[in-house]
Amino acid sequence: MTQTASTVSAKKSTQKKLTGLPKDALVSLHVGVNAVWFGVALAMMLMAVANLKTTNGDELYAVNAMVKLLDDFVVIPMAIASVLTGTLLCWLTVWGFFKFYWVITKWIATTVLITFGTFWLGPWTNSMTAIADIERVKALTNPLFMFDIHGVIIGGAIQVICLFAIIAISIIKPWGRRNVSKTAN
Questions:
Q1: What are the domain boundaries of the chain?
Q2: Closest listed residue to residue 129, CA positions, set 151, 150, 145
Q3: Is the pLDDT of residue 2 over 90?
């Protein structure tokens, strides 16, 4: 028995979507996860800024080690949780994956942030921590350490601004539904 596109579409449109308290709980979890990601990213950036003024090598290493620890055990899990809860919201609610501009914008921004964190912010954090571990206060005269810490500060500031924007978009939902014509094949 074969199904036509119209019968498949009819089945999809009659599937029960998440509403009420379960939907609100999932939205709250999603926004909460992003708020934790935002807060920890802000703290990490501020710790890196404060670390530029330290005169104690052990303190320099300890703060960098804490930034790395927060990245590994809070930021990365929160980024993953953000994608998982966002996927569930798209799948289980009327919002869908591509029906609304604000959802598409959040997907693009989150993908860019995770890519940037994976290939740049994370490695810079790991590198500056390793250098501070070996060189202690002398790391502040190491050009690679200074490049890495400035990358973490600037990249961290960009990440914080983008995360704030993503949270605001989650709450405000500023753009409407896409105009997509449905054609039956």
A1: 19-172
A2: 145
A3: no
